[in-house]
């Protein structure tokens, strides 16, 4: 028996809501698991994985999910409030990432180890630099008159697109970190695969959210 268009739409929204809820749980659960594993305070290095997990798994994911029509924690609030909370969470994510980067750089310096020689290190550096540029570029959305010949709609589109690239870089950096000796020594077998699925799940949810927002914007223009 064929499904009606209304039933298909309702099923699709339900699946998106379920995936968004799972993304919220993963966004919080992954840094919690990393905290248990790293035991922050046990060493200087122990703060690095926690701060990076907080930045790119929790804070950045929640900053983007705020605009989800199905699973936003602020669905009943105005867009102005959502934008302000988005900015606050993104700024906190950037601060955590910068602190995490500084800690690992100083830790390597203290132990006489080379900097940024692994794919994880290079991708992590690129991600933090990209996130810094993304936050700086986002200021243009607050003051669009600074950019002539650019409409606010176009600025929002480019900000969302470049933000998705930055988020995917963050997820890639987390996944590469889970291939490190420190992580693979502590997490093995099925647990390792489950951990790798965490950034994969959230990235898929965020990509779907951004693509749907883009399609909605295109439809509204016609």
From TrEMBL:
InterPro entries: CYB561D1/2 (IPR045150), Cyt_b561/ferric_Rdtase_TM (IPR006593). The chain crosses the membrane at residues 17-38, 44-67, 87-105, 125-143, 164-184, 190-210. It is an enzyme of class 7 (translocase). Gene3D superfamilies: 1.20.120.1770. It is a multi-pass membrane protein. Its EC number is 7.2.1.3. One of its GO terms (molecular function) is transmembrane ascorbate ferrireductase activity. It is found in: Membrane. Its main location: membrane. Keywords: Electron transport, Heme, Iron, Membrane, Metal-binding, Transmembrane, Transmembrane helix, Transport. Residues 12-217 form the Cytochrome b561 domain. Its cofactor is heme b. GO terms for cellular component: endoplasmic reticulum; membrane. CDD domains: Cyt_b561_CYB561D2_like. PANTHER family: OS05G0565100 PROTEIN, TRANSMEMBRANE REDUCTASE CYB561D2. This is ascorbate ferrireductase (transmembrane). It comes from Upupa epops (Eurasian hoopoe). The gene is Cyb561d2.
């Amino acid at each position: 028996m064929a499904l009606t268009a209304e039933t298909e739409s309702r099923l699709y929204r339900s699946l998106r809501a379920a995936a968004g809820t799972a993304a919220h749980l993963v966004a919080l659960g992954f840094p919690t698991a990393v905290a248990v594993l790293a035991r922050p305070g046990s060493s200087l290095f122990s703060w690095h994985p926690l701060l990076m997990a907080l930045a790119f798994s929790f804070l950045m994911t929640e900053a983007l999910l705020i605009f989800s029509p199905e699973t936003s924690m602020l669905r009943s609030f105005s867009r102005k409030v959502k934008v302000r909370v988005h900015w606050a969470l993104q700024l906190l994510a950037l601060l955590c990432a910068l602190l995490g980067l500084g800690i690992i750089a100083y830790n390597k310096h203290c132990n006489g180890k080379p900097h940024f020689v692994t794919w994880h290190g290079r991708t992590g550096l690129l991600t933090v630099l990209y996130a810094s540029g993304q936050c700086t570029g986002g200021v243009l959305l607050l003051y669009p008159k600074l950019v002539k010949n650019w409409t606010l709609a176009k600025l929002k589109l480019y900000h969302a697109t470049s933000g998705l690239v930055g988020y995917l870089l963050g997820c890639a950096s987390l996944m590469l970190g889970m291939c490190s000796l420190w992580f693979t020594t502590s997490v093995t077998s099925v647990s390792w695969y489950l951990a790798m699925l965490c950034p994969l799940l959230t990235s898929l949810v965020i990509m779907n959210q951004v693509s749907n927002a883009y399609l909605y914007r295109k439809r509204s223009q016609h």
